[in-house]
Amino acid sequence: MAPLARGAVTQALTPDEFEEALREHVKDYHHLHPFHRRMNTGQCSPEEIRGWVANRFYYQVNIPRKDAAILSTCPDREIRRRWVQRIIDHDGTTEGTGGIEAWLRLAEAVGLTRAEVEDARHLLPGVRFAVDAYVNFTRTRPWLEAVASSLTELFAPDLMAERLAAFERHYTWIDPKELSYFRSRITQAPRDSEHGLEVVRRHCVTQETQTAALSALSFKCDVLWSMLDAIDQAYGNR
Amino acid sequence: MAPLARGAVTQALTPDEFEEALREHVKDYHHLHPFHRRMNTGQCSPEEIRGWVANRFYYQVNIPRKDAAILSTCPDREIRRRWVQRIIDHDGTTEGTGGIEAWLRLAEAVGLTRAEVEDARHLLPGVRFAVDAYVNFTRTRPWLEAVASSLTELFAPDLMAERLAAFERHYTWIDPKELSYFRSRITQAPRDSEHGLEVVRRHCVTQETQTAALSALSFKCDVLWSMLDAIDQAYGNR
């Protein structure tokens, strides 16, 4: 299934219409990937779960780097003051804290060693290319587009809640206390997406900037979809 | 007076020798610029002080952006956890806090409005080019070189202490309580330069990386020098 084609905005939308368009954009996407559907219905083998966790780690370690790229291009101090929290959430403040660390503990819980996750030996080329494309996008595109690309988080709380429930129900071989990454994102993602949405609503008021924001969000959906394609191809049961 | 030519490292130095070479590199530099000498001996007119404050603001607002660029390229979480503090120091955590805000208060104290500083109407092309070169350097060069370029901070505490004393003594028309930017850097700069130095000592152990680090530091000295050239040219008494 190929990503849906997405139309440009033909005239400037009101902030509410624009928000609705953004929400529509992510609504029918990422979680519909065959791999995610199998994962959420308990059909993934331990090998598939491990492949997903090991590869998704590359995305996780790059999140602070893309957020720092946004900080580096964003000229608005007030936005930066809030955005920096994302970096701190992922990197943590001391050894053993933060989202990346939580992901490493998840990796251990599914039977991987830290070393084999951190040295990227399982990293698939398609996953690397997709994640690198995302980081490069945030470094080279206007900062508002980079902010808009983060709005896949609008759907993250539902996705995380569903994933957490699926893991607790179907993958009982994984210690449920090591699912803390998913739990923390259920509370962090709404705060983050609320901020991102507020910024994009306030700054994207013309047809051109709204189209660019929707296009950036499509791009980000493609990144996530493409990662799952590569993972499904490598580890999926067919 | 042109910047001094700086030799490459002809063989790998020990960490202590390398640190000494780094310290030598910045020791005889920035503060020796004729404009700085005049400033520190009380010879600058209010117009020169205002020109310096307004132009140096462009450097100040770009500091968090260059530090975010370093965060974005640095793959080491432990380094990022400490480096992020620089961004928070400059941006502040709430309205009215942080180093950029302190610089704006200095600007008001020397007789500028916030508006004329923030809209960059006094910004000289030479200052813009030098600062932009610095930010671009940190975005495009290896992260260790970007870290090394920050080591002009090794000299910052002395420079700031001298500047603070000069302002309090010679420029009594400026409310001394608005010199808080200089005061805060006297304590922040040693913490920052200590971290930067630790990173560079640990990671630059070959002739090639040590040469690259010294070259990055020369580049940064040139940035600061070039800014003062432009300011001296525009506002200096001749």
From TrEMBL, chains A, B:
Record domain Thiaminase-2/PQQC: where: 21-229
InterPro entries on file: Haem_Oase-like_multi-hlx, PqqC, PqqC-like, Thiaminase-2/PQQC
Reactions listed under catalytic activity: 6-(2-amino-2-carboxyethyl)-7,8-dioxo-1,2,3,4,7,8-hexahydroquinoline-2,4-dicarboxylate + 3 O2 = pyrroloquinoline quinone + 2 H2O2 + 2 H2O + H(+)
Enzyme class at the top of the EC tree: oxidoreductase
A GO molecular function held by the record: pyrroloquinoline-quinone synthase activity
E.C. number: 1.3.3.11
Pathway: Cofactor biosynthesis; pyrroloquinoline quinone biosynthesis; Cofactor biosynthesis; thiamine diphosphate biosynthesis
Key words, A-Z: Oxidoreductase, PQQ biosynthesis
Gene Ontology biological process terms, A to Z: pyrroloquinoline quinone biosynthetic process
Superkingdom, taxonomy of origin: Bacteria
Pfam families (UniProt xref): TENA_THI-4
Protein task: Ring cyclization and eight-electron oxidation of 3a-(2-amino-2-carboxyethyl)-4,5-dioxo-4,5,6,7,8,9-hexahydroquinoline-7,9-dicarboxylic-acid to PQQ.
Family per record: Belongs to the PqqC family.
HAMAP family listed in its UniProt record: PQQ_syn_PqqC
Protein name: Pyrroloquinoline-quinone synthase
